[in-house]
Amino acid sequence: MEDKRILYVSSEVVPYLAENEVSMMSYDVPKMVNDRGGQIRIFMPRYGNINERRHQLHEVIRLSGMNLVVNDLDMPLIIKVASIPKERIQVYFIDNDEYFKRKATFTDEDGTLYPDNDERAIFFAKGVVETVKKLNWVPDIIHVHGWLASMLPIYMKHYYKDEALFADTKIVTSVYTQSFEGQLDAEMINKVKFDGVPEASVSALSDPSFENLMKATVDHSDGVIVATDQLSASLTKYIESSGKPFLSFVPKEQFAEAYTRFYELL
């Protein structure tokens, strides 16, 4: 892993949010690569339930100030950064008051999905790519974790397909059991089409359930990791028959060697 550059894009990372499948692996995998001499960057949303004072987040003025267009609306991009204590790992936070100031991650206090989760996912994907462009940091691999990060492979393969910076970058997606009930906004596919993504490439998003979201993301990834031993049979079959290189689930104590080998295959 010496000097390999890997960009981790996750919907959740410990210690900034509670421990679960996604947030733990979004910490453990970058730490492993960092410990083995790789170069990493981590990006996640700056949800309102992240304690900025305790985690010492601060705005990076030179990276902030851009407007991103989501569904024909200009949305200001704010970039914050913090360091994971003792690990010398920097985490970049994608922020916007309209999308991320609320005091929870994906649902309101009644457990109802936020109606704009689809737009938050689009904003997050664009925010990550635009920030990496400003950093002028070329990743060999982008590794995506969590469904709110799942628009990134789609936007990389279409909206940013002509960006020379990413010409040789490979995209890996880890698929987890963490899902949501019901659907995201029924207009999601039209919001993605607004950005020039062909409808035929994202037809699954006409019914934006968790499973269909993951299928669209798998379709636009260069490699897929099954990151849980509880994945549904239908998603497992979809990944296995996708024609993409994939890594079956490996227990946590064995992931380091398996992930390293998988990265090197791409």
User: Quick one: how many beta strands?
Assistant: 11
Approximate shape:
globular
Radius of gyration: 17 Å
Indicate the low-confidence ranges by residue numbers. Answer: none
- Structural class by SSE content: alpha/beta
Oligomer: single chain
Helix content: 25-40%
Order of helices and strands: EHEHEEEEEHHEHEHHEHEH
Strand order of the largest sheet: 3-6-7-2-1-8-9-10-11
Q: How would you state the average pLDDT, rounded?
A: 96
- End-to-end C-alpha gap: 13 Å
Query: Main beta sheet, described?
Result: 9 strands, mixed
Q: Output the number of helix runs.
A: 9
β-sheet strand percentage: 15-25%
What are the main properties of this structure?
single chain, 266 residues, alpha/beta, 9-stranded mixed β-sheet, 11 strands
